[in-house]
Amino acid sequence: MTDIKRIAISTGGGDAPGLNAVIYAATLAAQQRGWEVVGIRDGYNGLLRGGDYPDGGLIELTRNRVRGIIHQGGTILGSTNRGNPIAYPVQQADGSWIEQDRTGELLERFAEHGIDALITIGGDGSLTIGNHLHEAGLRLVGVPKTIDNDLECTVATFGFASAVDFASECIDRLFSTATSHSRIMVVEVMGRYAGWIALHAGMASGVHAILLPEIPYRLEPVAELIAERAQRGSTYSIVCVAEGARPVGGERTVAGKSVGQAERLGGVGAKVAAELEALTGRESRSLALGHLLRGGSPTATDRLLGLRFGAAAVRALSEGRTGVMVALNPPTVDYVPLADATRRQKTVPLDCDSIQTARDVGIRFGDEC
Ligand code: F6P
User: Fold this and answer.
1) Could you tell me if 268 and 243 are in contact, meaning their C-beta atoms sit under 8 angstroms apart?
2) What sequence ranges are listed for the domain Phosphofructokinase (predicted)?
Protein backbone atom coordinates (compact mmCIF):
# COMPACT_ATOMS: atom_id res chain seq x y z
CA MET A 1 0.00 0.00 0.00
CA THR A 2 1.09 3.55 -0.62
CA ASP A 3 -0.01 6.98 0.53
CA ILE A 4 0.34 8.43 -2.98
CA LYS A 5 -2.60 10.59 -4.10
CA ARG A 6 -1.14 12.72 -6.87
CA ILE A 7 1.80 12.13 -9.19
CA ALA A 8 3.53 14.16 -11.88
CA ILE A 9 5.04 13.10 -15.18
CA SER A 10 7.82 14.99 -16.93
CA THR A 11 9.61 14.46 -20.25
CA GLY A 12 13.14 15.83 -20.60
CA GLY A 13 15.89 16.01 -23.21
CA GLY A 14 15.40 15.21 -26.88
CA ASP A 15 12.00 13.82 -27.81
CA ALA A 16 11.72 10.21 -28.96
CA PRO A 17 8.86 8.29 -30.59
CA GLY A 18 7.00 6.43 -27.84
CA LEU A 19 6.95 9.19 -25.19
CA ASN A 20 3.20 9.62 -25.52
CA ALA A 21 2.63 5.89 -25.10
CA VAL A 22 4.43 6.09 -21.72
CA ILE A 23 2.31 9.08 -20.70
CA TYR A 24 -0.86 7.25 -21.78
CA ALA A 25 -0.12 4.04 -19.84
CA ALA A 26 1.18 5.83 -16.73
CA THR A 27 -1.87 8.09 -16.62
CA LEU A 28 -4.39 5.27 -16.95
CA ALA A 29 -2.53 2.96 -14.55
CA ALA A 30 -2.36 5.76 -11.98
CA GLN A 31 -6.04 6.62 -12.39
CA GLN A 32 -6.95 2.96 -11.82
CA ARG A 33 -5.29 3.33 -8.42
CA GLY A 34 -7.30 6.45 -7.69
CA TRP A 35 -4.32 8.84 -8.10
CA GLU A 36 -4.45 12.20 -9.81
CA VAL A 37 -1.88 12.82 -12.53
CA VAL A 38 -0.38 16.07 -13.76
CA GLY A 39 2.06 16.61 -16.59
CA ILE A 40 4.82 19.19 -16.15
CA ARG A 41 5.44 21.28 -19.24
CA ASP A 42 8.88 21.30 -20.89
CA GLY A 43 10.87 19.18 -18.46
CA TYR A 44 10.75 21.06 -15.14
CA ASN A 45 10.12 24.48 -16.66
CA GLY A 46 6.39 24.17 -15.99
CA LEU A 47 7.23 24.19 -12.27
CA LEU A 48 10.24 26.51 -12.29
CA ARG A 49 8.68 29.08 -14.62
CA GLY A 50 4.98 28.30 -14.21
CA GLY A 51 4.08 31.98 -14.68
CA ASP A 52 5.31 31.85 -18.27
CA TYR A 53 2.56 29.40 -19.21
CA PRO A 54 -1.12 30.30 -19.70
CA ASP A 55 -2.08 27.09 -17.85
CA GLY A 56 0.44 27.64 -15.04
CA GLY A 57 2.84 25.03 -16.41
CA LEU A 58 0.91 21.93 -15.34
CA ILE A 59 -1.52 19.86 -17.42
CA GLU A 60 -4.12 17.73 -15.66
CA LEU A 61 -3.74 14.32 -17.27
CA THR A 62 -7.05 12.51 -17.46
CA ARG A 63 -8.43 9.66 -19.54
CA ASN A 64 -9.87 12.24 -21.94
CA ARG A 65 -6.61 14.16 -22.21
CA VAL A 66 -4.52 11.13 -23.15
CA ARG A 67 -7.05 9.50 -25.48
CA GLY A 68 -5.62 8.81 -28.95
CA ILE A 69 -2.01 9.78 -28.20
CA ILE A 70 -0.30 6.36 -28.34
CA HIS A 71 0.51 6.67 -32.03
CA GLN A 72 1.60 10.33 -31.89
CA GLY A 73 5.28 11.27 -32.09
CA GLY A 74 6.84 13.87 -29.78
CA THR A 75 5.48 14.54 -26.30
CA ILE A 76 2.22 16.24 -25.40
CA LEU A 77 4.04 17.74 -22.39
CA GLY A 78 6.84 19.40 -24.34
CA SER A 79 10.50 18.89 -23.57
CA THR A 80 13.70 20.86 -23.23
CA ASN A 81 17.40 20.28 -22.91
CA ARG A 82 17.90 23.73 -21.39
CA GLY A 83 16.09 23.19 -18.12
CA ASN A 84 18.49 21.28 -15.88
CA PRO A 85 17.45 22.37 -12.36
CA ILE A 86 20.93 21.62 -11.01
CA ALA A 87 22.59 23.96 -13.53
CA TYR A 88 19.76 26.16 -14.71
CA PRO A 89 20.83 28.69 -17.38
CA VAL A 90 20.12 32.26 -16.28
CA GLN A 91 20.90 35.29 -18.44
CA GLN A 92 22.58 38.22 -16.70
CA ALA A 93 21.90 41.91 -17.33
CA ASP A 94 25.05 42.11 -19.47
CA GLY A 95 23.79 39.31 -21.73
CA SER A 96 26.15 36.65 -20.36
CA TRP A 97 24.85 33.37 -18.94
CA ILE A 98 25.41 31.71 -15.58
CA GLU A 99 24.14 28.40 -14.22
CA GLN A 100 22.17 28.21 -10.95
CA ASP A 101 21.27 25.23 -8.78
CA ARG A 102 17.47 25.46 -8.37
CA THR A 103 16.95 22.03 -6.77
CA GLY A 104 15.57 23.41 -3.49
CA GLU A 105 13.10 25.67 -5.28
CA LEU A 106 11.94 22.79 -7.49
CA LEU A 107 11.30 20.53 -4.50
CA GLU A 108 9.25 23.33 -2.90
CA ARG A 109 7.13 23.59 -6.07
CA PHE A 110 6.44 19.83 -5.99
CA ALA A 111 5.27 20.17 -2.36
CA GLU A 112 3.17 23.30 -3.07
CA HIS A 113 1.32 21.45 -5.84
CA GLY A 114 0.70 18.44 -3.60
CA ILE A 115 2.72 16.16 -5.86
CA ASP A 116 3.72 13.02 -3.97
CA ALA A 117 5.89 11.37 -6.61
CA LEU A 118 7.35 11.89 -10.06
CA ILE A 119 7.73 9.71 -13.14
CA THR A 120 10.60 11.22 -15.10
CA ILE A 121 11.00 10.04 -18.68
CA GLY A 122 14.36 10.79 -20.21
CA GLY A 123 17.81 9.82 -21.40
CA ASP A 124 21.04 9.81 -19.39
CA GLY A 125 20.92 13.57 -18.72
CA SER A 126 17.33 13.58 -17.43
CA LEU A 127 17.83 10.38 -15.45
CA THR A 128 21.00 11.76 -13.84
CA ILE A 129 18.95 14.78 -12.78
CA GLY A 130 16.28 12.33 -11.59
CA ASN A 131 18.81 10.52 -9.44
CA HIS A 132 19.90 13.85 -7.95
CA LEU A 133 16.28 14.75 -7.13
CA HIS A 134 15.76 11.30 -5.61
CA GLU A 135 18.84 11.81 -3.41
CA ALA A 136 17.44 15.23 -2.46
CA GLY A 137 14.29 13.50 -1.16
CA LEU A 138 11.81 13.35 -4.05
CA ARG A 139 9.94 10.07 -4.56
CA LEU A 140 10.66 9.21 -8.15
CA VAL A 141 10.82 6.49 -10.82
CA GLY A 142 12.71 6.90 -14.11
CA VAL A 143 11.72 5.66 -17.56
CA PRO A 144 14.52 5.23 -20.12
CA LYS A 145 14.02 7.09 -23.38
CA THR A 146 16.36 7.77 -26.25
CA ILE A 147 16.66 7.08 -29.94
CA ASP A 148 20.40 6.56 -29.28
CA ASN A 149 19.89 3.32 -27.25
CA ASP A 150 22.89 4.34 -25.13
CA LEU A 151 21.45 3.66 -21.66
CA GLU A 152 22.93 0.95 -19.48
CA CYS A 153 20.89 -1.68 -17.59
CA THR A 154 18.08 -1.92 -20.14
CA VAL A 155 18.14 -4.09 -23.24
CA ALA A 156 16.44 -1.31 -25.19
CA THR A 157 15.06 2.18 -24.91
CA PHE A 158 11.90 3.20 -26.75
CA GLY A 159 12.51 5.47 -29.72
CA PHE A 160 15.45 3.44 -30.98
CA ALA A 161 13.40 1.00 -33.09
CA SER A 162 11.50 3.86 -34.75
CA ALA A 163 14.73 5.72 -35.52
CA VAL A 164 16.35 2.59 -37.00
CA ASP A 165 13.29 1.76 -39.10
CA PHE A 166 13.10 5.25 -40.53
CA ALA A 167 16.85 5.51 -41.16
CA SER A 168 16.71 2.16 -43.00
CA GLU A 169 13.83 3.36 -45.13
CA CYS A 170 15.79 6.49 -46.05
CA ILE A 171 18.93 4.51 -46.90
CA ASP A 172 16.85 2.13 -49.04
CA ARG A 173 15.80 5.17 -51.07
CA LEU A 174 19.40 6.25 -51.53
CA PHE A 175 20.23 3.03 -53.35
CA SER A 176 18.17 3.90 -56.41
CA THR A 177 19.63 7.39 -56.81
CA ALA A 178 23.17 6.16 -56.02
CA THR A 179 22.95 3.42 -58.67
CA SER A 180 21.39 5.75 -61.23
CA HIS A 181 24.25 8.25 -60.90
CA SER A 182 27.09 5.84 -60.05
CA ARG A 183 27.77 7.91 -56.96
CA ILE A 184 29.06 7.41 -53.47
CA MET A 185 26.31 8.40 -51.04
CA VAL A 186 27.27 9.10 -47.43
CA VAL A 187 24.41 9.21 -44.96
CA GLU A 188 24.95 10.61 -41.46
CA VAL A 189 22.68 9.47 -38.64
CA MET A 190 22.24 10.64 -35.05
CA GLY A 191 23.23 8.57 -32.03
CA ARG A 192 25.56 10.87 -30.12
CA TYR A 193 28.58 8.95 -28.77
CA ALA A 194 27.09 5.53 -29.56
CA GLY A 195 26.86 3.85 -32.95
CA TRP A 196 23.73 1.77 -32.41
CA ILE A 197 21.56 3.57 -34.98
CA ALA A 198 24.29 3.59 -37.64
CA LEU A 199 25.13 -0.06 -37.08
CA HIS A 200 21.57 -1.37 -37.09
CA ALA A 201 20.20 0.85 -39.88
CA GLY A 202 23.33 0.40 -41.99
CA MET A 203 23.27 -3.38 -41.68
CA ALA A 204 19.53 -3.63 -42.23
CA SER A 205 19.80 -1.69 -45.47
CA GLY A 206 22.93 -3.42 -46.76
CA VAL A 207 25.33 -0.47 -46.88
CA HIS A 208 28.96 -1.05 -47.83
CA ALA A 209 30.70 0.74 -44.96
CA ILE A 210 29.65 1.90 -41.50
CA LEU A 211 31.65 4.39 -39.43
CA LEU A 212 31.02 4.27 -35.70
CA PRO A 213 32.12 6.35 -32.70
CA GLU A 214 33.41 3.11 -31.15
CA ILE A 215 35.85 2.43 -34.05
CA PRO A 216 38.07 5.38 -35.08
CA TYR A 217 38.26 5.15 -38.85
CA ARG A 218 40.68 5.51 -41.75
CA LEU A 219 39.03 6.06 -45.11
CA GLU A 220 41.63 4.16 -47.16
CA PRO A 221 40.04 0.73 -46.50
CA VAL A 222 36.64 2.16 -47.44
CA ALA A 223 38.07 3.67 -50.63
CA GLU A 224 39.66 0.30 -51.46
CA LEU A 225 36.30 -1.43 -51.12
CA ILE A 226 34.69 1.20 -53.35
CA ALA A 227 37.39 0.58 -56.00
CA GLU A 228 36.94 -3.21 -55.73
CA ARG A 229 33.21 -2.81 -56.15
CA ALA A 230 33.69 -0.61 -59.20
CA GLN A 231 35.95 -3.27 -60.74
CA ARG A 232 33.17 -5.80 -60.21
CA GLY A 233 30.76 -3.47 -62.00
CA SER A 234 29.08 -1.88 -58.99
CA THR A 235 29.78 1.77 -59.65
CA TYR A 236 27.93 3.10 -56.59
CA SER A 237 28.52 2.66 -52.86
CA ILE A 238 26.67 3.68 -49.71
CA VAL A 239 28.37 4.62 -46.46
CA CYS A 240 26.50 5.10 -43.17
CA VAL A 241 28.26 7.38 -40.68
CA ALA A 242 27.31 7.91 -37.05
CA GLU A 243 27.42 11.59 -36.11
CA GLY A 244 29.89 10.76 -33.33
CA ALA A 245 32.37 8.97 -35.61
CA ARG A 246 35.92 10.30 -35.74
CA PRO A 247 39.06 9.51 -37.72
CA VAL A 248 42.02 7.74 -36.14
CA GLY A 249 43.89 10.40 -34.17
CA GLY A 250 41.20 13.01 -34.95
CA GLU A 251 38.27 14.66 -33.19
CA ARG A 252 34.50 14.33 -33.46
CA THR A 253 32.79 16.93 -35.63
CA VAL A 254 30.94 19.38 -33.39
CA ALA A 255 28.24 21.59 -34.92
CA GLY A 256 27.88 23.88 -31.91
CA LYS A 257 27.47 24.34 -28.17
CA SER A 258 25.13 26.62 -26.22
CA VAL A 259 25.01 27.48 -22.52
CA GLY A 260 23.37 24.75 -20.46
CA GLN A 261 23.42 22.27 -23.35
CA ALA A 262 25.59 19.36 -24.37
CA GLU A 263 27.72 19.81 -27.48
CA ARG A 264 25.81 19.33 -30.73
CA LEU A 265 27.39 16.82 -33.08
CA GLY A 266 27.01 16.99 -36.85
CA GLY A 267 28.90 17.42 -40.09
CA VAL A 268 31.10 14.33 -40.20
CA GLY A 269 29.14 12.91 -43.17
CA ALA A 270 30.03 15.87 -45.39
CA LYS A 271 33.71 15.55 -44.45
CA VAL A 272 33.72 11.82 -45.19
CA ALA A 273 32.05 12.38 -48.58
CA ALA A 274 34.61 15.03 -49.58
CA GLU A 275 37.52 12.84 -48.50
CA LEU A 276 36.15 9.77 -50.28
CA GLU A 277 35.69 11.79 -53.46
CA ALA A 278 39.33 12.88 -53.23
CA LEU A 279 40.54 9.32 -52.51
CA THR A 280 38.47 7.53 -55.17
CA GLY A 281 37.94 10.17 -57.82
CA ARG A 282 34.27 9.22 -57.80
CA GLU A 283 31.46 11.71 -57.37
CA SER A 284 30.17 11.72 -53.77
CA ARG A 285 27.21 13.26 -52.02
CA SER A 286 26.27 13.40 -48.35
CA LEU A 287 23.14 13.97 -46.38
CA ALA A 288 22.40 14.08 -42.65
CA LEU A 289 19.10 12.59 -41.53
CA GLY A 290 19.33 14.57 -38.28
CA HIS A 291 16.11 15.23 -36.41
CA LEU A 292 14.02 13.31 -38.95
CA LEU A 293 15.01 10.25 -36.91
CA ARG A 294 13.25 11.65 -33.84
CA GLY A 295 10.05 12.58 -35.64
CA GLY A 296 6.96 10.76 -36.73
CA SER A 297 4.78 8.06 -35.34
CA PRO A 298 6.43 5.38 -33.17
CA THR A 299 6.67 1.85 -34.53
CA ALA A 300 4.50 -0.80 -32.87
CA THR A 301 7.62 -2.01 -31.01
CA ASP A 302 8.19 1.41 -29.47
CA ARG A 303 4.50 1.91 -28.66
CA LEU A 304 4.44 -1.40 -26.81
CA LEU A 305 7.69 -0.68 -24.97
CA GLY A 306 6.39 2.76 -24.00
CA LEU A 307 3.14 1.29 -22.68
CA ARG A 308 5.00 -1.39 -20.71
CA PHE A 309 7.43 1.14 -19.23
CA GLY A 310 4.68 3.61 -18.29
CA ALA A 311 2.55 1.04 -16.49
CA ALA A 312 5.62 -0.52 -14.82
CA ALA A 313 6.64 2.91 -13.48
CA VAL A 314 3.26 3.25 -11.77
CA ARG A 315 3.48 -0.29 -10.38
CA ALA A 316 6.93 0.58 -9.00
CA LEU A 317 5.55 3.63 -7.18
CA SER A 318 2.58 1.68 -5.82
CA GLU A 319 5.00 -0.97 -4.51
CA GLY A 320 6.87 1.77 -2.64
CA ARG A 321 9.92 1.85 -4.90
CA THR A 322 11.86 5.04 -5.53
CA GLY A 323 15.20 5.96 -7.10
CA VAL A 324 14.80 3.20 -9.67
CA MET A 325 14.51 3.04 -13.44
CA VAL A 326 12.22 0.62 -15.26
CA ALA A 327 14.30 -1.55 -17.57
CA LEU A 328 13.61 -4.04 -20.32
CA ASN A 329 14.95 -7.43 -19.32
CA PRO A 330 13.10 -9.84 -21.62
CA PRO A 331 10.65 -11.34 -21.12
CA THR A 332 9.92 -8.86 -18.35
CA VAL A 333 10.36 -5.26 -17.24
CA ASP A 334 12.60 -4.94 -14.16
CA TYR A 335 13.66 -2.15 -11.86
CA VAL A 336 17.30 -1.09 -11.54
CA PRO A 337 18.85 1.61 -9.33
CA LEU A 338 18.96 4.92 -11.22
CA ALA A 339 22.55 5.34 -10.08
CA ASP A 340 23.55 2.14 -11.93
CA ALA A 341 21.70 3.09 -15.10
CA THR A 342 23.38 6.49 -15.37
CA ARG A 343 26.92 5.51 -14.40
CA ARG A 344 28.17 5.22 -17.98
CA GLN A 345 26.91 5.12 -21.53
CA LYS A 346 26.12 1.89 -23.33
CA THR A 347 28.17 1.88 -26.50
CA VAL A 348 28.42 -0.85 -29.14
CA PRO A 349 30.68 -3.68 -27.86
CA LEU A 350 33.37 -4.29 -30.45
CA ASP A 351 33.03 -8.06 -30.09
CA CYS A 352 29.24 -8.18 -30.47
CA ASP A 353 27.78 -10.53 -33.04
CA SER A 354 26.31 -7.67 -35.08
CA ILE A 355 29.78 -6.28 -35.78
CA GLN A 356 31.03 -9.79 -36.57
CA THR A 357 28.06 -10.35 -38.86
CA ALA A 358 28.68 -7.06 -40.63
CA ARG A 359 32.32 -8.02 -41.19
CA ASP A 360 31.25 -11.49 -42.38
CA VAL A 361 29.10 -9.95 -45.11
CA GLY A 362 31.89 -7.60 -46.18
CA ILE A 363 30.88 -4.29 -44.56
CA ARG A 364 33.93 -2.13 -43.80
CA PHE A 365 34.36 -0.14 -40.58
CA GLY A 366 37.49 1.75 -41.56
CA ASP A 367 39.76 -0.21 -39.19
CA GLU A 368 40.79 -2.86 -41.74
CA CYS A 369 44.48 -3.27 -42.59
O1 F6P B 1 19.99 12.06 -27.75
C2 F6P B 1 19.16 12.15 -28.84
C3 F6P B 1 19.74 13.04 -29.89
O4 F6P B 1 18.85 13.09 -30.98
C5 F6P B 1 21.14 12.65 -30.36
O6 F6P B 1 21.14 11.57 -31.26
C7 F6P B 1 21.63 13.94 -30.93
O8 F6P B 1 23.05 14.02 -30.88
C9 F6P B 1 21.03 14.96 -30.01
O10 F6P B 1 19.89 14.36 -29.41
C11 F6P B 1 20.59 16.22 -30.72
O12 F6P B 1 20.09 17.11 -29.78
P13 F6P B 1 19.41 18.50 -30.17
O14 F6P B 1 18.01 18.20 -30.58
O15 F6P B 1 19.47 19.28 -28.92
O16 F6P B 1 20.20 19.09 -31.29
Assistant:
1) yes
2) 6-317
Alpha carbon nearest to ligand 1 atom 11, residue: 264
CA of 147 to the centre of ligand 1 (A): 9
Which residues, judged by CB distance below 6 Å to any ligand atom, belong to the binding site of ligand 1?
14, 81, 123, 146-148, 190-192, 243, 264-265, 294
d(CA 318, CA 117): 10
Helices (H) and strands (E) in the chain, counts: 12, 15
The CA-based angle 51-122-71, given to 5 degrees, is 90
Rounded to two decimals, the pTM is 0.96
Round to whole Å and give the CA distance between 213 and 199: 10
pLDDT at position 16, please?
A: 98
Active-site residue, from 15, 148, 150, 165: 148
Pair 284, 273: CB distance under 8 Å: yes
- Give the span between the Cα atoms of 8 and 138, in whole angstroms: 11
Q: Which residues of 318-330 are buried (b: 16+ CB within 10 A; e: fewer)?
A: beebebbbbbbee
> Does residue 101 have an active-site annotation?
no
Of 78, 141, 70, which is closest to residue 305 (Cα–Cα)? 70
The Cα–Cα gap between 156 and 149 comes to 6
| Cβ atoms of residues 166 and 293 within 8 Å | yes
Examine the pLDDT at 257 and tell me if it is beyond 90.
no
Average pLDDT over residues 169-196: 97
Which residues pair with residue 329 across a beta bridge?
332
